[in-house]
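Q: For a teaching session next week I want to show students how multiple molecules come together into a single three-dimensional assembly. I've collected the sequence lines for a complex. Could you give me the predicted structure tokens for the whole thing so I can convert them for display?
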Amino acid sequence: MDAIFEATIQVLLKEGLARLTTIRVAERAGVSVGTLYQYFPNKLSLQYAILVRHFEELATAVEGVRDGAANRSPAALAADIARAYVRVKTARPELTQALYRVAAVLQQNKLTTGAHERLNAAVRDTLARADGAPVADAERVARALLAALAGLARAAFEGELKSEGLEEDATVLAGAYVAAVAGRPAA
Amino acid sequence: MDAIFEATIQVLLKEGLARLTTIRVAERAGVSVGTLYQYFPNKLSLQYAILVRHFEELATAVEGVRDGAANRSPAALAADIARAYVRVKTARPELTQALYRVAAVLQQNKLTTGAHERLNAAVRDTLARADGAPVADAERVARALLAALAGLARAAFEGELKSEGLEEDATVLAGAYVAAVAGRPAA
Amino acid sequence: MDAIFEATIQVLLKEGLARLTTIRVAERAGVSVGTLYQYFPNKLSLQYAILVRHFEELATAVEGVRDGAANRSPAALAADIARAYVRVKTARPELTQALYRVAAVLQQNKLTTGAHERLNAAVRDTLARADGAPVADAERVARALLAALAGLARAAFEGELKSEGLEEDATVLAGAYVAAVAGRPAA
Amino acid sequence: MDAIFEATIQVLLKEGLARLTTIRVAERAGVSVGTLYQYFPNKLSLQYAILVRHFEELATAVEGVRDGAANRSPAALAADIARAYVRVKTARPELTQALYRVAAVLQQNKLTTGAHERLNAAVRDTLARADGAPVADAERVARALLAALAGLARAAFEGELKSEGLEEDATVLAGAYVAAVAGRPAA
DNA sequence: TATGAATGAGTATTCATTCAT
DNA sequence: TATGAATGAATACTCATTCAT
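A: Of course. Below is the structure for the complete assembly, covering every listed component.
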């Protein structure tokens, strides 16, 4: 089952979404198609599995930031979130890239939202626990922050942005944005 | 040929990427498949064409900002860029959404980069013309800024972020980020 | 298109329902699967086409009997119907046999009834025009008569009954049944 | 083994022929597929088994008629046979319908004949024992009679004929046919 | 130049059957 | 004797692309 999972990532990376077929995945995993279908009910679930695992890693990382949030400013926490986010993305670059291939399909099927929720909540709660000027409308800021980070990460992994600078870009942007927003009244 | 072009967009909008077939496009354009193939060598080129057109609209909009850039601060210009960017995206929301589907297919084929270049340049040049503290490494900042804006827009159009606040989120974020970066030495 | 039709019958006969696949039909027809699907929207429609053609031949034959029905007794007409019925069945034994292979599938999908209707009507109307003692509840008698004839024919073509005697068995049975029923009050 | 047998019928009834799979049968029987294959060498044999059982029920019923055949006319006996036949069919209507689906698969494989033989014999012997004018060629008449009854029953259970009148239609037809045939010289 | 019928490789998914445990 | 995971051939159907007219 894990072999199938990893094979999916490999096929996605080396062949692309259009060539992600159940047969190819099974072959690379060293099992038969039949076996693949014993573990995953259909092709979509294969793609979904990658997504879920990734969002869980991200959420866990951000929850780490949240749990040490006391006595820190919103901007500092935002930078920490950005750092944690980028590090997870960078830790398994293949998985990250594979995810981009798959994202369009899943978004079309509205499968994203559930998996994303825990991550959203972690960011929102981290900002809510910050010291000093509170962030009004933390929910909205959390979503915008994550969206911007996702944009940066995607650009980096798709080759539009130099990966080496990613962590710094992300922390600066996150810190600046949240600093600008903290203490403001809600829109 | 223009009819084919528009038909592609229509099919994408009304039927989705999975049902974007050459026959369907030809039908909607009122021509035969054979004729379609006389103007576009393959299906990919059709999708590429609409993506390119979109990037050109974005570039044109940002170039408008660049051309009025004199005597304005980097942060103010960044906010203007964000506003222009969001407005183009918002003008034809379904098309924008459709393009995210198409982009996934194309990114894999690295066809995007060329089309993106003019947009990048426009942002970079705008920042370079700003008044006051200059933006070091404008190229890099431009790319990061566009990446973040793309992330925000995507989240909004994919439904993860409320669309109504998009313009404000984008301008605040862009302004704050560039303000933070302006005057700094290059990394 | 006609080649596809005939190929379907041949495959059904030589290979059986279980081996009636779109590929095999296309091959035997000397066309590609794609072409097959340009003429028949799906596999079921292929089977249905056989059914319809057959019922139309039967109906036409019985309508011939009906049109010469004046001044004849119900029993004599019933025998004529039986004769006409058997002759159509016997004229193209392959098609008849192919139909039996297919019938179960179609009945399961309730596709039979429509095609059968014209045949039913022809039998009913023939009986209604008969001379002498009228057949009460001609509709019901018509259906029962057709059912019995179908049973005889099936048995003959499936090999359970000697085909040589079929016409006689059918005419005797039909004549006797309708004679017994004519002049009776409806149940 | 009996559990498997009953499970087959249940699956056929509740799910239809297309969903009659070895795994489903095993599950419903509360055993593993492996075990199923210890009792039935393949899927076909399962279907064959229930068909055989059905023919045995029919044969048993007709044998009852045969055993009380003394001093009765051929026509009366034929009507009794028809009644017995219909009653077995009507006792478990869904099973009867399910069997028509199964029969289509099996007829092709000519497995039916053996099972049908006892039924044929019972009808033939019943007619042979009738009082009065003997039925010439009882074998042939028996087969024709069974074929006609099968046709009526099938039509009724497939919905082409009203089921309520089935018993009457069958007895009238059987009686009339055999009366017409009794005393005649063989063809 | 335009047509659209024909092609056939390619896809997801199912299921009878086997065999190591 | 019983299990059930693994197999992989088989199926219906789609669609980008070609080419004779």
